[in-house]
Amino acid sequence: MKKLIAKWNCLLLATLVLAACGGGGEDIVEPTPTPTPSTPKGTVTITAPQVSDILTTSVTVRGQVTASSGLNVTNRGFCYSTSPNPTTGDKYVTVQLNDMLATITGLAAGTTYYIKGFAEYRELGSDVSVIYTAYSDVTTFTTAENGGSDLDSYVAPTYADDYRSFADWAKRSQWNLANVHDPSVVLADDGYYYMYQTDASYGNAHEQGGHFHARRSKNLVDWEYLGGTMKDAPAWVKEKLNEIRAKQGLDPINSPTYGYWAPCVRKVKSNLYRMYYCIVVDNYIKTGKSNTAANFDGSWTERAFIGVMETDNPASNNWTDKGYVLCSSSDKGKDGWARPNTNNWEGYFYFNAIDPTYVITPEGEHWLIYGSWHSGFAAVQLNPETGKTLKELGDPWATSPEGLAANGYGKRIWTRPNGGRWQGSEAPEIIYHDGYYYLFMAYDGLDIPYNTRVARSTTIDGTYAGNELVVTHPYKFSGNQGWVGISHCAVFDDGHGNYFYASQQRFPETAGGNAPNAVMMGGVRSIQWLSTGWPVVMPERYGAVPAVAITADEIAGTWEHIDLSYSYGKMKESTTMTFAADGTITDGAWKGGKWSFDAATNTLTANGVELKVQRECDWEASPRKHTIVYAGVSGAKTYWGKKK
Q1: Which residue of 7, 378, 419, 552 is most buried, as measured by CB atoms within 10 A?
Q2: Mean pLDDT of the chain, nearest integer
Q3: CA end-to-end span of the chain, whole Å?
């Protein structure tokens, strides 16, 4: 039998994946709403969970949600408990698709669990504050006894971070995550993660292989290089550029200089994937000459264009171009492109058409968010069938931001607090998670200061607000040169409720050798979610360490601790901190404080700070090995740590 609960005012539970949300296995006592909502018109059916791959601390679970016409499923997943009647008041994991698949971790060994599928839904066109919950029948499973061998058999990744000796094109089969810049990652139907990127590499090795290069992986650790997805710039770019220039009364540019930047790839549905890409024209507006100091003509450089390609099979690496989506646009009219000198940064363009992120909302709307440096980020709704703008575009200029919005180029949804036309922010990446749209963005110059912030909104076209938390920053653990330039991220999930952050990261200048800051190694890191709903990025790169349950005994000991709070252009270095077995902190920045550990949610509370804890690879150790790390937030401060 299925149980229906009407929830008034969308009382959504804690957004933390695998969070303990109270209840302890008891039924939730629902408050009686006033007025009492009516019975929904229609049904939601959920199959009983099917469990497989039962290990000591994890299990894979599958199910399916089917909703009647007129009902909108807003959240779905699995809830579980050691008591016979689990609800969403117990632990739960959410998934994004009605064909539900999740891996639940952090379980106790040798323990019987009860699990149900659940779906939260509402009636379309009715009072959207009324949320109903449907449950499946219950399934039971028992985790394996702990034999202690999972971690004992762990083999850490062995590929080199310093790839300068094999950076050239002829050795691309050895690259793994070498030469990664501005990645975008999508999980495809064939079980592979596909990564695409900006045209950039150490020594420009990529120039022999086309544009928007691809690689793939089954485990997020070992990556196979596939090569470029575009041979040459599509003809429409030059045609559209010169069509716009003709409207401005300017001569055509016969041989534009192109840059190929920042693709974003998403699965639209089975057998349909879209890649939004950026082609930047690096010629001066006034004369059309190439962008050099000698050619400076008192104007800004030309606009950028966003186009779209599609494929039914990423494994083929064959993409079909679908043409123009939009271009950079100005609020200074069609001829307001004068620039007094190259030290003036009051840009002509209001929205810079690069760095797209493509979002499909739970309601099925398609949106493109884009923008970089000029004024902030814009949101434009798309036609789901074509991938082009829903509104027909007018001229890419107006005399106000409102005029640009009326012309179809979108409205601004975020700007850096210091404002201005040239503001050191780029690379918006938006995902939906438990009721919020999270906007990850890059701050500052990409060489050393690059860091990642996050804001959130309850609607896709915001305004995005919040603490704009720092989630990555230049840093250094002991025994290593450290990393800088960690941003322009992809954020994605594995279909099992686990989220990841991927970006480039660079050696600091102090690393030595030839051009160390041009080393661009890709880094994939796990994301965890705090009880406040905010994400934290784990400090060590993902290394596929078995998710064996962590005990309080393992927390005790010496840690490397980093205060990751923002400091422009500086690496935040670790200091030691000691957690004593009696729950006190006896050394380090939080000396005199206390700590406690909740093994059910992998939450370490230290000196009053909530920290998410998990097993990861110690990349600074020689040889590499597994360890335990933490990440957390207190006020405006972010903290990273690693067990020594």
Answers
A1: 378
A2: 91
A3: 51
